[in-house]
Write a sequence for this structure.
């Protein structure tokens, strides 16, 4: 336990620093490309975030496929990874005026082609046995990771015109900080004050007291981040932090459910103290669509 905590305290800040550096470069690139590309006066929003997603989605697909294998649901990993990447690219392209008229149809085609390619992959080996299982697993893996990544990418791209370069970048930072500070608050709150188990049969380490302190920490972080976002008041940041922090914990419990089914402790061992890539990104990805919805409600921009 102590070694795992030391690893978390060591590698957690390193990962956060790398992500923040990449988002800073993302912000700088948008400013530099403003007026230089065929996107009106706006710059190229979200290029750094897109690169990050394209790096982390393939290993996350591999880890998710190992979890699915517990129920003999084996997605075609390359197809799922390609489909997830295509969804992230699709969200990135929605910032271009010429692409917007094809956005809805092309989004549907990505999902359809993932299913079709999975079927063709099964037909290629002339086997019908478990064809539905392979197709369903491939589509589910694509939607679970690529579909949620679409909202994270759209949060950066679509909000750029409303909040500006700094504001839209800060939105991504806020989502990441809110989710991670919920984890931190829940961990230390549970160790200090935890008495009542949250869901003992699913995640025995989580407590109601830890969850409450984690969500309070998330609310404080959301309120603090709100000062860097246009049209966003501190009380909205407080509500945003509490809600998104809670949703992030649901994402963690969702992965715990899959890991319990697969009878594994972590989805992988790539990141010391954290497990696999999926263990790190499950909460932010599930929180992304809810963050997108809340920001649309609070600021009125769709």
């Amino acid at each position: 336990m102590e070694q795992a905590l030391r690893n978390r305290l060591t590698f957690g800040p390193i990962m956060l620093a790398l992500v923040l550096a990449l988002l800073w470069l993302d912000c700088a690139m948008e400013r530099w490309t403003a007026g230089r590309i065929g996107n009106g006066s706006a710059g190229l929003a979200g290029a750094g975030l897109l690169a990050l997603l394209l790096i982390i989605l393939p290993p996350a697909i591999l880890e998710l496929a190992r979890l699915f294998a517990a129920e003999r649901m084996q997605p075609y990993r390359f197809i799922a990874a390609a489909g997830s990447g295509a969804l992230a690219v699709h969200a990135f392209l929605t910032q271009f005026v010429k692409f917007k008229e094809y956005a809805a149809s092309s989004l549907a085609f990505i999902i359809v082609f993932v299913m079709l390619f999975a079927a063709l992959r099964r037909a290629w080996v002339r086997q019908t046995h478990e064809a539905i299982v392979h197709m369903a697993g491939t589509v589910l893996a694509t939607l679970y990771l690529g579909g949620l990544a679409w909202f994270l990418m759209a949060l950066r791209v679509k909000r750029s015109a409303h909040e500006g370069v700094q504001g839209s970048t800060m939105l991504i930072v806020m989502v990441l900080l809110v989710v991670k500070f919920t984890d931190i608050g829940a961990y230390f709150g549970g160790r200090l004050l935890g008495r009542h188990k949250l869901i003992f049969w699913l995640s025995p380490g989580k407590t109601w007291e830890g969850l409450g302190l984690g969500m309070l920490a998330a609310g404080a972080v959301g309120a603090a981040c709100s000062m860097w976002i246009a049209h966003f008041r501190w009380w909205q940041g407080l509500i945003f932090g509490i809600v998104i922090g809670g949703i992030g914990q649901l994402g963690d419990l969702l992965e715990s459910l899959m890991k319990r089914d697969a009878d594994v402790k972590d989805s992988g061992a790539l990141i010391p103290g954290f497990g696999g890539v999926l263990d790190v990104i499950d909460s932010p990805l599930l929180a992304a669509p809810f963050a997108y919805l809340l920001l649309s409600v609070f600021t009125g921009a769709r």
Remarks:
- Residues 184 and 214 are 7 Å apart (CA to CA).
- The chain has one domain: 2-299.
- The mean pLDDT is 86.
